[in-house]
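Q: I'm building a small set of examples for a reading group on sequence design. Run inverse folding on the following structure and report the sequence directly after it, with nothing in between.
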């Protein structure tokens, strides 16, 4: 029993000692390093990434105790590249850097304690000419290609710099081909009315791939390119289109196709007596044309095994009675002035009665017409308040609102398709005197709803040679007026004749 008491006493003493020992530690504050928010950055190859971080410490007043490290890596990569060991980042992006998004880290370490703070953010590296608005201009008779990129910088002379020569004379149109499933088809087509037709270039380095004539299995007898449409999609195939000399040429290819076999444009669709307007409606599942000879809509349809029809097809109208429709798509009886995708992603067009000269606006559906869907004719209404509409130099439609924008001389007009009212909304004389509006462009692709808020306007100074062309980037509000002139790029090109979006 005595031994038991001794053991209990010793244990009690031990626990008491431990408890007392715990109470002898002093609590010490440590210096914390805090880095303020660094936002996502986008930068071009060859430019310098400059960041001055906001750094705070909880105890230290001086930064003499700190050391710095900047590094990044791409998603899926195990390799980390150190950018700098300096406080402020000044890193020139090498031209050899892979394009894409980089996870970037700023790490600041307290040398006294080894404790550190860090901030993770994203840097997007893009080529200066990787994405943006392609601009084709007539520079003293020669075709000249430029690009307004995502950094809002304009780069001119892209084709000439890559090839040492011009792509042709009397430029007409530029088109961009992007086919993810068949990447070797990605290209830029520059169309010229010079009997040669222009060229097809690589979409990244702008080096010439081949002449326009070699875009066809058999070159057309008359070389007069007008428009390119990056067309429609089937279940496992894609189709695109060229309108040359008012005749339609089709190219079709399988998504699984990996060689260049059968990827050229076919001879013109039948009947060859039809004069096809260069204004068409392109959509992922439809391509709608207008036959100005017979004054009617026509379409190209997807047949068995996903091959396209070899001739134009009539427009399907389902159970509708042509006699009671606002207009009969297969017998419109009017000449087409212009048509495109517009408000609510439906079709709109300006037409003229050849007998009376009266202009009409037509409104219609077009979705999935390549797959035999029926067209709905919504209305045919006379146009009474649209000065200079027929002779306008350029037209674009908003998909957000019922507006058609068109240009004549120094004025940009907004025409309300629903209420038949027109208003001048931009006067070049207030920006660049003695100039005319040559081209309008508004980006459109299936599914988008935002780009109708930005209008690109090309103008040229009259009586001036050389780089007399300017590009105006206008912001539009929902009332159809110019809410802001974002940027005016003055004298960057020749007279602008065409624009398209490259990505």
């Amino acid at each position: 029993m005595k031994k038991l008491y001794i053991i209990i006493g010793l244990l009690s003493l031990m626990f008491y000692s431990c408890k007392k020992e715990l109470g002898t530690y002093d609590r010490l504050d440590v210096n914390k390093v805090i880095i303020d928010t660094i936002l996502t950055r986008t930068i071009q190859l060859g430019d310098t990434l400059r960041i001055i971080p906001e750094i705070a410490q909880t105890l230290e007043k001086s930064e003499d105790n700190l050391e710095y490290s900047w590094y990044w890596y791409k998603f899926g990569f195990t390799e980390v590249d150190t950018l700098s060991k300096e406080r402020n980042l000044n890193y020139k992006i090498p031209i050899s850097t892979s394009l894409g998004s980089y996870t970037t880290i700023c790490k600041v370490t307290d040398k006294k304690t080894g404790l550190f703070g860090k901030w993770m953010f994203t840097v997007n590296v893009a080529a200066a000419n990787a994405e943006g608005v392609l601009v084709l201009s007539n520079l003293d008779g020669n075709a000249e290609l430029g690009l307004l990129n995502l950094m809002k910088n304009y780069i001119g002379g892209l084709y000439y710099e890559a090839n040492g020569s011009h792509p042709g004379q009397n430029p007409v149109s530029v088109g961009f081909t992007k086919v993810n499933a068949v990447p070797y088809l990605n290209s830029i087509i520059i169309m010229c009315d010079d009997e040669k037709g222009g060229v097809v270039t690589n979409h990244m380095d702008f080096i010439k791939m081949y002449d326009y004539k070699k875009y066809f299995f058999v070159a057309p007898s008359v070389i007069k390119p007008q428009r390119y449409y990056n067309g429609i999609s089937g279940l496992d195939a894609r189709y695109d289109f060229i309108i040359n000399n008012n005749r339609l040429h089709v190219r079709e290819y399988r998504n699984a196709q990996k060689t260049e076999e059968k990827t050229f444009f076919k001879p013109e669709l039948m009947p060859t007596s039809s004069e096809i307007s260069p204004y068409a409606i392109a959509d992922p599942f439809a391509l709608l044309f207008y036959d100005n000879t017979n004054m009617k809509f026509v379409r190209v349809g997807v047949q068995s095994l996903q091959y396209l029809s070899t001739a134009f097809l009539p427009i399907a109208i389902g159970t509708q009675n042509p006699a009671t429709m606002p207009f009969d798509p297969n017998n419109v009886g009017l000449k087409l002035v212009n048509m495109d995708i517009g408000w609510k992603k439906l079709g709109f067009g300006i037409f003229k009665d050849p007998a009376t000269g009266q202009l009409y606006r037509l409104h219609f559906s077009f979705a999935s017409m390549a797959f035999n869907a029926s067209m709905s004719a919504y209305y045919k209404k006379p146009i009474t308040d649209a000065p200079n509409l027929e002779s306008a130099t350029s037209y674009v439609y908003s998909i957000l609102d019922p507006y058609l924008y068109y240009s004549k001389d120094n004025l940009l007009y907004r025409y309300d398709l629903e209420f038949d009212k027109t208003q001048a909304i931009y006067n070049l004389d207030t920006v660049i005197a003695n100039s005319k509006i040559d081209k309008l462009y508004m980006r459109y692709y299936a599914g988008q709803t935002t780009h109708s808020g930005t209008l690109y306007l090309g103008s040229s100074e009259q009586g001036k040679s050389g780089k007399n062309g300017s590009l105006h980037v206008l912001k539009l509000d929902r009332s159809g007026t110019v809410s802001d002139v974002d940027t005016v790029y003055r004298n960057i090109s020749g007279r602008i004749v065409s624009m398209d979006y490259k990505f």
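Confidence is low (pLDDT under 50) at residues 13-22.
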